[in-house]
Amino acid sequence: MADAPRSRKLAKRISQIVASALEHEVKDPRLARVTITDAKVTADLHDATVYYTVLGDKLDTEPDHAAAKAALERATGVLRTLVGQGTGVRFTPTLTFVADTVPDDARRIDDLLARARAADAEVAAQASGASYAGEPDPYKAPRDPDDPDNDDGDDGDDDPDDEDSGADR
Predict the structure, then answer these.
(1) Distance CA 22, CA 82 (A)
(2) Residue 37's closest CA among 9, 6, 14?
(3) Given this model, what pLDDT does residue 20 score?
(4) How many CB atoms are located within 10 Å of the residue 112 CB?
(5) What does the alpha-carbon distance between residue 115 and residue 108 come to, in Å, rounded to a whole number?
(6) How many whole angstroms separate alpha carbon 10 and alpha carbon 13?
(7) Four-CA torsion 24, 25, 26, 31, nearest 10 degrees
């Protein structure tokens, strides 16, 4: 078994070799808008998964994922040969191409964040004209013992001669 740093290093090298080969070696026009985003290699270095994205011809056109997948499957043998020559490992890993879902997930998260911002703005707009339901200051003020308006009859000093002290009872 190979260690994880070696498999990561090999995966990085495989993604570089495949990206370069798609740009310079493979002349399939269906691969003109394919970008290699990542590669993963198993711990035994026998299988490599290469992740790719496909861009449309224009911003408003949908990319042709099926044609790109078919072109990558057709070019797998050539790409594997180039990976074997470029890496120098004893066993050239088999290549599996998987469409990367990160851009779609990022777009979905951006849409969710935009909806959350809109909902927050709506709540803030409703709250800007709102007033509190109770008094402006809902907390009771602490009692002042020297206040003549104090209704408890206690003047604050603990004098036993006080009439209201309750010691006579």
Answers:
(1) 11
(2) 14
(3) 92
(4) 10
(5) 11
(6) 5
(7) -20
- What is the SS3 assignment for 53? strand
Give the DSSP letter string of 85-122. Answer: HHH--SSPPEEEEEE--HHHHHHHHHHHHHHHHHHHHH
Query: Who's near 143: CB < 8 A, 6+ residues apart?
Result: 150, 152
Residue 55's identity, in one-letter code, is L
Q: Which residues share a beta bridge with 39?
A: 50
pTM of the model: 0.64
Q: What is the CA radius of gyration of the chain?
A: 37
* 97 in Cβ contact with 69 (< 8 Å): yes
Q: Can you read off the two tokens belonging to residue 29?
A: 């026009």
Q: What is the pLDDT of residues 74-93, one digit of tens each?
A: 999 999 999 999 998 889 99
pLDDT band at 161 (very low <50, low <70, confident <90, very high): low
Exposure of 75 by Cβ count < 10 A (0-12 exposed, 13-18 middle, 19+ buried)?
A: buried
Question: Could you give the CA distance from residue 64 to residue 28 in angstroms, rounded to a whole number?
Answer: 14
Question: Which tokens in the block code for residue 69?
Answer: 């997948």
Measure the CA–CA gap between 18 and 83, rounded to whole angstroms: 7
Average the pLDDT over each of 10-14, 55-59, 66-70, 156-160 and give the range with the smallest value: 156-160
